[in-house]
Amino acid sequence: MLASINSATLLGVGGHPVRVEVHVANGLPAFGVVGLPDASCREARDRVRAALVSSGLAWPSQRITVNLAPTGVPKAGAVLDLAMAVGLLVACGELEPETVDGLAFLGELGLDGSIRPVAGALPLVDAVEVEGVVVAPENRLEASLVEARQVYSVGDLRSLVRALRGDDEWPASPDLAEFDEIIQYPDLSDVRGQPIPRFALEVAATGGHHLLMIGPPGAGKSMLARRLPGLLPRLDSSDALQAARIRSAVGEELPPGGLVRRPPWRAPHHGASAAALVGGGSGTMRPGEISLAHGGVLFLDELGEFAPKVLNTLRQPLEEGTVRVSRVTGSTEYPARVLMVAAMNPCPCGGSGAPGGCRCPESVRARYVRRVSGPLLDRFDLRVDVRRPDPGELLDGNPGETTASVADRVATARQRAVDRGVRANSDLSPSDLEAEAVLEPAAVSLLEAALHAGRLSARGLHRVRAVALTISDLQGDEGSLGADLIDTALSFRIDPFSPVGPSVR
Amino acid sequence: MSGGSTPDEVADHAFLAALAGLPAMGPARLRALLGLLGPAGSWKVASSGRLPREVQAVIGPRAASVATSWVEAARTCTPEAVLAELQSVGVTVTRRGEHGYPPALVDDPDPPEVLFSTGRPVVNENGPTVAIVGTRRCTRYGTEVAVEFGRGLAEAGVVVVSGLASGIDTAGHAGVLAAMGGTPPVAVVATGLDIVYPAQNRTLWRRVADAGQIISEAPLGVGPARWRFPARNRIIAALADVLVVVESHLEGGSMYTVTAALERDRPVLVVPGPIRSPASEGTNRLLSDGAAPACNLDDILCALNLVCLEPVSLATNHGAPPVSADPADLGVLDALGWEPTTLDGLATRTRLSPVQLGSAVGRLQRAGLISEERGFLQRCSGRGVP
User: Fold this and answer.
1) In this structure, is residue A116 part of a structural domain?
2) Are A89 and A5 in contact (CB under 8 A)?
3) Is A496 inside a domain boundary?
4) Which of A118, A193, A332, A444 could form a disulfide with A12 if both were Cys (CB 3.0 to 4.6 A apart)?
């Protein structure tokens, strides 16, 4: 007899519908799986057999063939276990075919017949082509985020069979109220003094400008960066769903409530590979850290220690807000709209980097500089020096301004960008800037001078303009941008690698 | 280009140039060879590998391997070709004691046997000579002082010698070049005259060669070997009547120049610096060890037994009210002081908002009163220093 069951498999961060066809016929007892299963998918044979037997269900001593259609799509993982087991039960007459109509099955089986959760439940449920889905209880929350699906969650195979036969009710499931995430970001009031880095954080959060902090060890660069997600607006529904989808695809736990509402914070170690950062890998392609940080902050500590090749893979995703990963097995696209914040020491000796204060030989310094390419450096709209805070500020006991009050200012200023039709000022194109960031004549001549002096690239010119616009939004200014704003934007764009000392032209 | 040289001298120059170009040929080895055998004889011995016992003693335990490397190197070059190449690029060869050899070096304890030079023979004119040296990793303060001393000395008719390195050397040469109708610049370099080191000083190198003189102990094609820098520094110390150290870390090439100058009884003048600046740590130590301070041009001229007609205090001159600056910005300038400070440090001191401060810094930079280097703001004298 033949049975055909709905299920799905994961490709990148998206699901792909799969029909599991089970054929039971007379012949030598055997169990074969065809249709591009990977190793863990092929091992389903043993899990399914053990799960059925443990659940007290019959195992047919017949020739069983399982086909995973469409056969051209590679299937990975154990998500199809449950569909195979249900298909077998239908094919050998334990279940009536009508009982599984309109249902899809997503789950891994334990040898004791338990139904286990799978990674990527959210995109998988989204992918199935029927209205009802059966998942493990642990996957219920993620599955319910797809509004158009009726979700049933069952903990073991025997209860599932009883529910399908109508012998029992479906197990009751708790109501899912959306409750807020409890993660609290550290508060900005912990930061004492350091007015310039603080302001840079505010501008970065408002305009979506990537930020590079340069300073000696212990200056508080990481401490500052950690406080940035708290300044960013909460993710809207579509972003929250997308972020949840990505997190689900890599099997990371979703916050209570399921949706990722708080801007994510990702801080990959500097040993990270290109695939870990932008996504990829062989076989199942995984989204990288930049996608996991979608809508939030990607923090690269010790920027100079990352492999230059790895850093350069970030350039295109940063520009486009998406990552396209191509492998022999296919290509996928992941969302990757992040606010990049990086921190680095001025030079390898760990000194302050002050003129005359560095102990590095020139060759060592030059090698360190080469690790961060010019084009990548150009992507940081804001580049500030971070010094250890003034001792007086550290000890005077007055807390700094709180995250809540800065976030209020950020939200007000961001509304202006939204009124311009973009999420943040960094999304404005050069032609948008022409219309939105009108320059006073003095400001124009300032920019011209900076261009002629070789201090700015053409890209840099637009970025300086966008930063000046963000600062003016934060101040609540109206009208054109004056020289003071351009000067300020330029002073927040230091070149950490400019040649030192005098030179003769 | 050995103008006025006899045919014998020309032949000697060819041998000298070829000898100087042999691997691991330092001044002491060359001196030992020449003292014993003369140019032609030395070349014969070096290219055959049969070194006399006295020369072997100077080289030490590695004499055999050095001799082999000389034979090998001598096989691929001829003295005539070496000389022809020098002449084709306009390099003059002078042997110790010949006309054109700097008089200050003739009786030196460790004199170079042969010198290569381009440009005009400035050092032979025997005028008062000052060497300006200092760290390559200098601050804006050091840069400005070196430029002003370089310019002031050149305008006073003093020959200024330096090493064409980055940092203080560059600033010193730039000052000389900026002087109106002053003495031409002199540089002593550690590489061959066709190898510009550091490469970013190419323009400066060319301008010094055009206006003045570049001297080297190394023949063409010799790269920046480590040992050649202290060797070059001893020539700078020997050429100078007075050595001025502008900025120096506790360790570094300038400290070697100081030692070499003291061995030769040359007075060493030192520019005092902020006690918190690492680039002044070495110079301040020299001062506490008893070196005389160089606080203005007059101090240096006095050490040369010259008289300055109108002594100018650099301190008051620095503080002269900058006409071009906005009065409100002067508060920022005062808060900046003379130590490198970041924007954040300045914001903490002035309590100005980021925009007020950023625009003030921008205006002061355009007025030439502040310079920025890798995020550090430094006060300038506002006199167009490179």
Assistant:
1) yes
2) no
3) no
4) A332
pLDDT digits (tens, 9 = 90+) for B51-103: 888 888 888 888 889 999 999 999 988 999 999 999 999 999 999 988 889 99
CB proximity list for A189: less than 8 A, separation 6 or greater: A399, A400, A401, A402, A403
* A396 at interface of B, judged by CB pairs closer than 8 A: no
Q: Determine, for residues B170 and A353 on separate chains, whether the beta-carbon distance falls below 8 Å.
A: no
**Inside any domain, residue B224:** yes
* B83 shares its domain with B187: no
Q: For residue A501, which residues of chain B lie inside 8 Å, CB to CB? A: 136-138, 143, 166-167, 170-171
Say which of B137, B344, B363 has its CB closest to residue A356: B137
Residues 246-305 of B with CB under 8 A from A: 247, 249, 277-280
Report yes or no: A357 at the B interface, CB cutoff 8 Å. yes
Give A448-501 pLDDT, tens digit per residue: 998 988 888 888 999 999 999 999 999 998 889 999 999 999 999 998 877 777
Q: Using the structure block, give the residue that is written with the tokens 């190793």.
A: A39
pLDDT over threshold 60, residue B378: yes
Residue ranges making up the domain that contains B331: 319-379
Residue B92 covered by a domain: no
Please provide the average confidence, as pLDDT, over all residues in chain B.
88
- ipTM of the modeled complex: 0.74
Query: How large is the angle between the packed helices B27-48 and B7-20, nearest 10 degrees?
Result: 100
CATH number at residue B344: 1.10.10.10
Tell which of B266, B293, B316 closes a domain. B316
Q: Is residue B358 part of a domain?
A: yes
A227: CATH: 3.40.50.300
CB contact under 8 A, B358 and A489: yes
Establish if B384 belongs to a structural domain: no
Query: Distance (Å, rounded) from C-alpha B122 to C-alpha B211?
Result: 10
Q: Which residue range forms the structural domain that includes residue A409?
A: 188-491
Q: How confident is the model at residue A65 (pLDDT cuts 50, 70, 90)?
A: very high
Instruction: Tell me the shortest Cα–Cα distance from A458 to chain B, in angstroms.
Output: 20
* The predicted structure's pLDDT at residue A182: 54
Chain A residue at shortest CA distance from B386: A502
Question: Which B residues, 354 through 383, put their C-beta within 8 Å of a C-beta on chain A?
Answer: 354-359, 361-363, 366, 372-376, 378
Confidence of residue B316 (pLDDT cuts 50, 70, 90): very low
Domain boundary among B264, B293, B316: B316
Is the model more confident about B225 or about A498?
B225
d(CA B220, CA B232): 15
- Do A301 and A357 reside in the same domain of the chain? yes
Q: Do residue B348 and residue B223 come from a single domain?
A: no
B-chain CB neighbours of A497 within 8 Å are 374
- Number of domains comprising chain A: 2
Residue B162 phi, psi (nearest 5): -150, -170
Residues B201 and B269 both lie in one domain: yes
Does the distance separating the beta carbons of A346 and B374 come in below 8 Å?
A: yes
Say whether both B231 and B140 belong to one domain. Answer: yes
One-letter identity of residue A28: L
| Distance (Å) of CA A231 to CA A186, A305, A381 | 11, 27, 18
The model's pLDDT over A240-271, given as tens digits with 9 standing for 90+, comes to 888 888 888 887 877 766 677 889 999 999 99
A406 and A458 in a common domain: yes
- Measured between beta carbons, the chain B residues lying within 8 angstroms of A199 are 354
Q: Are residue B312 and residue B324 in the same domain, yes or no?
A: no
Residue A45 forms part of a structural domain:
yes
A331 in a domain, yes or no? yes
Query: Taking CB atoms and an 8 Å limit, are B373 and A358 in contact across chains?
Result: no
Angle A131-A333-A74 from CA coordinates, rounded to 5°: 65
Q: How far is B321 from chain A (nearest CA, A)?
A: 23
Q: Which residue of B has its CA nearest to A361?
A: B137
- Cβ-based neighbours of A209, under 8 Å, separated by 6 or more: A203, A339, A381, A382, A425, A426, A463, A466, A467, A470
Q: Which residues of A touch B386 (CB under 8 A)?
A: 502-505
Structure tokens at B15: 């041998």
Same-domain pairing of A122 and A234: no
Q: Which of residues 365-394 of A touch B (CB under 8 A)?
A: 383-387, 390, 393
Chain A, residues 78-107, CB within 8 A of chain B, namely: none
Chain A residues touching B278 at Cβ < 8 A: 354, 356-357
- Statement to judge: residues B157 and B283 lie in one domain: yes
